[in-house]
Design goal:
The complex is a heterodimer of chains A (311) and B (140). Chain A has 311 residues and is α+β, with helices and mostly antiparallel strands. Chain A is built from 7 helices and 16 strands. Chain B has 8 helices and no strands. The chains are: A alpha+beta (311), B mainly alpha (140).
Chain lengths: 311, 140
């Protein structure tokens, strides 16, 4: 099996939800159960990738990659098939959350836990010299940046650097973090060349406690209302709130592939992955609320620097 | 371990408070409960409570039973008093909830935010289950 890590960059607010909830938000985001980290499930991404090939004249090739189509929708359609699809799409997990700040407009905030999970996704896929090392742990309510000189989100109070993220005013360690700089550099390689310095300028590492507070409270919450077609005004009782990951959010996941099992289309695993990932920066619409502009994302991967590996 | 889950305790407090809201106040109380969670997420706990406090100030001298914002602040304070937040609990013995929250250190502030959000889930459920539609749409 061959695998490749991918990066999803939200270009507009991204709502991949769990349906209606009785929580404080009517339509919340999908999250990992144990950690609460927001995710885009692999099934959503796979469906969108498959749909993007619906006009492909070579249907057998598409089926070889994504698997045979179901004859019936729902659980009744879960019948054994002649062959399996070759592509495995893993969930995309939050990697860096854009958080508004008083200085520098916004920071891309990440934490040791999110980077450790990303590193595990990468495990064995990049050459040892290319996988960034784990970052050193942080004290509670502390932050670190790759470069004090280059980071755009810092301000100084009593001579000490600080970041102001939403409500949280955090002290920044007064030295550059070379480990974080190598993360910014390697992650930046997946981005278009003109955006590569964004991570060096905006990446802020906070402790996991602060990060979990931010992924709970710094997502985008929009209130929406239905309009009564008779009156043109807000319909009674038709107000709801929905949660999205803000534009500029970065998520990371892994795609894997075997050789194609289709009897007529023999594809190598690397071909399956390249077809699925498409050209660099493929635009996709993911999640709900597409007609109101939600879910525009760029799918990126590491095309150079040993991003592929076998296991 | 006191033999009950935290969610049970929150639910008990919320239902107790919501059932005691006077009928005439319910139409105004309901949208405030529904909007407060989103407001905490958008603006932060201190700002969301300050918004309720501002509404309360408009007729502060009026009795409690005539002002839904004042009533809700009171309910939240009562519910948070028994939550496991020692710094907030201590302050609530001498000051109002918005004042107490404004004084909290970062760690307690984050805990208070999370506790309030969990509590508001139960307030929403209790309001939906307790208030009749006719009450909720009638002006106070």
């Amino acid at each position: 099996m061959e695998s490749r890590a991918y990066l999803l960059q939200a270009l507009s607010p991204l709502h991949v939800g769990t349906g209606q909830s009785v929580g404080v938000i009517d339509l919340p985001l999908m999250r990992m159960r144990a950690t609460g980290i927001p995710i885009v499930p692999g099934s959503s991404l796979k469906g969108v990738l498959r749909d993007s090939r619906k006009h492909d004249s070579d249907r057998a090739r598409s089926d070889a990659i994504f698997g045979p189509r179901r004859e019936k929708p729902g659980p009744e359609g879960d019948q054994p098939s002649e062959y399996a699809g070759a592509l495995v799409v893993g969930d995309a997990r939050l990697l860096a959350l854009p958080v508004r700040g008083f200085v520098g407009t916004f920071a891309l905030v990440t934490s040791p836990l999110l980077l450790a999970l990303a590193r595990r996704d990468w495990g064995g896929r990049m050459g040892d010299e290319d996988v960034p090392k784990p970052v050193a742990p942080l004290a509670k309510y502390q932050a670190r940046v790759a470069s004090l000189k280059d980071n755009a989100c810092l301000y100084r109070h009593d001579g000490r650097p600080r970041v102001y993220l939403e409500d949280l005013d955090l002290e920044v360690e007064n030295q550059d973090d070379a480990g974080l700089a190598s993360w910014a550099e390697v992650l930046g390689r997946a981005l278009p060349s003109e955006e590569r310095d964004m991570l060096l300028r905006r990446l802020v590492l906070v402790d996991d406690e602060t990060m979990s507070f931010l992924w709970e409270t710094a997502t985008q919450v929009d209130t929406r209302v239905s309009i009564n077609p008779e009156t043109g005004t807000a319909a009674q009782g038709q107000l709801w709130t929905e949660e999205s990951l803000p534009a500029e959010t970065l998520l990371m996941g892994v795609m894997a592939a075997t050789r194609a099992w289709h009897p007529e289309r023999k594809l190598a695993a690397s071909e399956v992955l390249s077809e699925a990932l498409g050209g660099q920066g493929t635009m996709l619409q993911l999640g709900g609320k597409a007609t109101v502009g939600r879910g525009w994302c760029r799918l990126l991967s590491w095309q150079s620097g040993g991003s592929e590996g076998q296991r | 371990m006191n033999g009950q889950t935290r969610e049970q305790l929150r639910a008990l407090r919320a239902y107790q408070c919501v059932r005691a809201v006077p009928t005439g106040l319910r139409a105004d109380y309901k949208p405030r409960v529904h909007g407060l969670g989103a407001s905490v997420l958008r603006d932060g706990l201190a700002a969301a409570l300050a918004f309720l406090e501002r509404e309360k100030k408009a007729d502060e001298r009026e009795p409690l039973g005539t002002n839904a914002a004042k009533w809700l602040l009171n309910d939240l304070a009562k519910s948070l008093e028994s939550a496991p937040l020692p710094e907030l609990n201590r302050r609530l013995t001498t000051m109002s909830l918005p004042d107490a929250v404004r004084e909290l250190k970062l760690e307690e502030y984050m805990l208070a935010t999370r506790e309030t959000l969990r509590l508001l889930v139960w307030f929403r459920r209790a309001v939906q289950a307790t208030f009749k539609d006719s009450e909720a749409t009638r002006a106070p």
